[in-house]
C-alpha cells in the first residue's frame, strides 16, 4: 500500500513514483533490503523458535507448544498494528515468527499422532488447507483495507491478524493431548483412554501395544538431538532436510509471499496486483482441497511427481511470457490481455504446488519420523523450511533486479532436481500405520542398508518403531 510504503519505506515509494531510468525498470522497483528484511525477518525468528519448540513439545506436550505460539502471535500483531517506526514493525514480525516456529513444529506432529492411518494424509493436509485459506483471507483483507480512505488501512490489515491468533491461543486450551505424548510423559492409562476416545472403539489393544513399544524406545532416548544423527535414522533425517529445502526452491514464496509486489512489478496497477493475489489465493485453496481428498487414494509419490511436472511447465511459461514482453530492460508494461495470460499461467503453477509440494512438504516429514526423535525431527523440518524461506525471501527482489526474467528458469531447474529426488529416493507411505513406518525404509533400494545395518553404537539399526506391529498384523 502506498501509504504504508511512504511512511516506513520512503525510498521504495519514491522509486515507484519517479520517472528516472532506474525507476522505470519494472524488475527493480521494490529492490530494497530494508523492505525485504521487514518481510523475511519473520522466517529467521521462526527458525530459531522451532528449535526451542522441539524441547517444549516433548516436555510439556503438543498443545502447550501451540498455546505459546498463539501468545507470541498476539504480541506481534499488537506491535505491528501500533507501529510508528520500522523498528517496531520488524520486532513485531520477529514475534510473529516465534509463533510460526512453535505452531509449525507442533501442529503437524499433533495431527499425525491423532489421525488413524487410513485418513492421516487427509487430516494432515488439512493443516496446509487452513494455511491456504489464511492466505486467501489475508489477500482479501489487504484488498479491502487498501481502499479505506485516510490511508490507515494498513494498520487494520496488520491488526486483524490477531483474530486467528486469538482463536489459536484459546483453542489450544481445549485440545486433548495425543496418546503418544501422554505415554511419552508417563501417563499410560490416560493414553489408553485417549486412544479409545479418538478411535471411537473400545478395543485398541493392538495399536496401544504399538504405542507402548514405541514409547519404551522413546523414553530410552535421553538425547534426541544427538540420536537423530545415528545411522538408523538417516532416511528420516534426509527427508526432514531435503523435502522442506526443496519445497522452498520451487519458488512458491516468490509467487504467494510477494504476489502483490510481483504483479505490481510486472506492470499491474496497485488494485489489480492485490486482486491478482486474491485470484492466486483462491486457486491455492481449491487445489489444496484436491490434495486433501486424493492423497490417501493416489498416494504421496503420484502427487509429488505430477505436481513437479506442472510447476515446471508453469515456471517456464511465466519466464517466457515475462521475457517476451519486458525483455532485459524491463521498461514495457503489460496490456490487460497479456497480463491476464500471465495470471492464468501463474495460477496453473500454484495449483500444481497446492496439491503436491505444499501439503506433502509438511505431511511426509511428520509421518515418517519415529516417536523417540519426532519432536527433534519436526524441529529440523521447520528450521530448514524457515531458513530456506528466509533465504528466498531475502534474495528474490535483488535477484529479480539483476537476473530479470531468467530467474524463473532458475526455479524451474530446481523443480527438475526435486522431482528426480522424489522419483528415486522417496518411498510410498500411503496407508502405512505411523508405528510401522520402519518397514517402508527396509523395503527401499537405497535406505534399507541404513535401517538394516549395525548402528553407530553397535546396536542393530532395525531396533526401532514398528517391530511390535509385525506381530499384531
UniProtKB/TrEMBL annotation:
Keyword terms, alphabetized: Membrane, Sugar transport, Symport, Transmembrane, Transmembrane helix, Transport
Q: Major facilitator superfamily (MFS) profile domain spans which residues?
A: 1-430
Record-level GO cellular component terms: membrane
The record's principal subcellular location, in a coarse class, is: membrane
Question: What Gene Ontology molecular function terms does this protein carry?
Answer: monosaccharide transmembrane transporter activity; symporter activity
Does Transmembrane appear among the keywords? yes
Pfam families with a match to the protein in the record? Sugar_tr
The name this protein carries in UniProt is Major facilitator superfamily (MFS) profile domain-containing protein
Q: Which family, according to the similarity comment?
A: Belongs to the major facilitator superfamily. Sugar transporter (TC 2.A.1.1) family.
Q: Any transmembrane segments, and where?
A: 34-54, 66-84, 90-111, 123-141, 153-175, 237-259, 271-295, 302-326, 338-364, 376-397, 403-426
Question: How does it sit in the bilayer?
Answer: Multi-pass membrane protein
Q: What is the lineage of its organism?
A: Eukaryota, Viridiplantae, Streptophyta, Embryophyta, Tracheophyta
Amino acid at each position: 500500500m502506498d501509504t504504508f510504503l511512504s511512511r516506513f519505506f520512503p525510498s521504495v515509494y519514491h522509486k515507484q513514483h519517479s520517472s528516472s531510468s532506474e525507476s522505470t525498470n519494472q524488475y527493480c522497483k521494490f529492490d530494497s533490503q530494508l523492505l525485504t528484511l521487514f518481510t523475511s525477518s519473520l522466517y529467521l525468528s521462526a527458525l530459531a523458535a522451532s528449535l526451542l519448540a522441539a524441547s517444549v513439545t516433548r516436555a510439556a506436550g503438543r498443545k502447550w507448544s501451540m498455546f505459546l505460539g498463539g501468545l507470541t502471535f498476539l504480541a506481534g500483531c499488537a506491535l505491528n498494528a501500533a507501529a510508528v517506526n520500522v523498528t517496531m514493525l520488524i520486532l513485531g514480525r520477529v514475534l510473529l515468527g516465534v509463533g510460526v516456529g512453535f505452531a509449525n513444529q507442533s501442529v503437524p506432529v499433533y495431527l499425525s499422532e491423532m489421525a488413524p492411518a487410513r485418513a492421516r494424509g487427509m487430516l494432515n493436509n488439512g493443516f496446509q488447507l487452513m494455511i491456504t485459506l489464511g492466505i486467501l483471507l489475508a489477500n482479501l483483507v489487504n484488498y479491502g483495507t487498501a481502499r479505506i480512505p485516510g490511508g490507515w488501512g494498513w494498520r487494520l490489515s496488520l491488526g486483524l491478524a490477531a483474530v486467528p491468533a486469538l482463536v489459536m491461543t484459546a483453542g489450544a486450551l481445549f485440545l486433548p493431548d495425543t496418546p503418544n505424548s501422554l505415554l511419552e510423559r508417563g501417563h499410560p492409562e490416560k493414553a489408553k483412554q485417549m486412544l479409545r476416545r479418538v478411535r471411537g472403539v473400545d478395543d485398541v489393544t493392538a495399536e496401544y501395544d504399538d504405542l507402548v513399544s514405541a514409547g519404551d524406545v522413546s523414553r530410552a532416548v535421553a538425547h534426541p538431538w544427538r540420536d537423530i544423527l545415528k545411522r538408523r535414522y538417516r532416511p528420516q533425517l534426509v527427508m526432514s532436510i531435503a523435502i522442506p529445502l526443496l519445497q522452498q526452491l520451487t519458488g512458491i514464496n516468490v509467487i504467494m509471499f510477494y504476489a502483490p509486489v510481483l504483479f505490481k512489478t510486472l506492470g499491474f496497477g496497485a488494485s489489480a496486483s492485490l486482486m491478482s493475489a486474491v485470484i492466486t489465493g483462491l486457486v491455492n485453496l481449491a487445489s489444496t482441497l484436491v490434495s486433501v481428498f486424493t492423497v490417501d487414494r493416489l498416494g504421496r509419490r503420484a502427487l509429488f511427481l505430477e505436481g513437479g511436472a506442472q510447476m515446471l511447465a508453469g515456471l517456464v511459461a511465466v519466464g517466457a511470457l515475462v521475457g517476451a514482453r519486458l525483455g532485459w530492460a524491463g521498461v514495457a508494461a503489460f496490456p490487460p490481455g497479456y497480463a491476464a495470460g500471465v495470471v492464468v499461467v501463474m495460477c496453473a503453477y500454484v495449483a500444481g504446488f497446492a496439491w503436491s509440494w505444499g501439503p506433502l512438504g509438511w505431511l511426509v516429514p511428520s509421518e515418517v519420523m519415529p516417536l523417540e526423535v519426532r519432536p527433534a525431527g519436526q524441529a529440523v523440518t521447520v528450521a530448514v523450511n524457515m531458513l530456506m524461506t528466509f533465504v528466498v525471501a531475502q534474495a528474490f527482489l535483488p535477484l529479480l533486479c539483476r537476473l530479470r526474467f531468467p530467474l524463473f528458469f532458475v526455479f524451474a531447474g530446481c523443480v527438475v532436481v526435486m522431482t528426480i529426488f522424489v522419483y528415486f529416493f522417496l518411498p510410498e507411505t500411503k496407508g502405512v500405520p505411523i508405528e510401522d513406518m520402519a518397514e517402508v525404509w527396509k523395503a527401499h533400494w537405497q535406505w534399507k542398508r541404513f535401517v538394516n545395518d549395525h548402528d553407530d553404537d553397535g546396536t542393530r539399526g532395525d531396533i526401532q518403531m514398528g517391530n511390535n506391529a509385525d506381530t499384531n498384523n
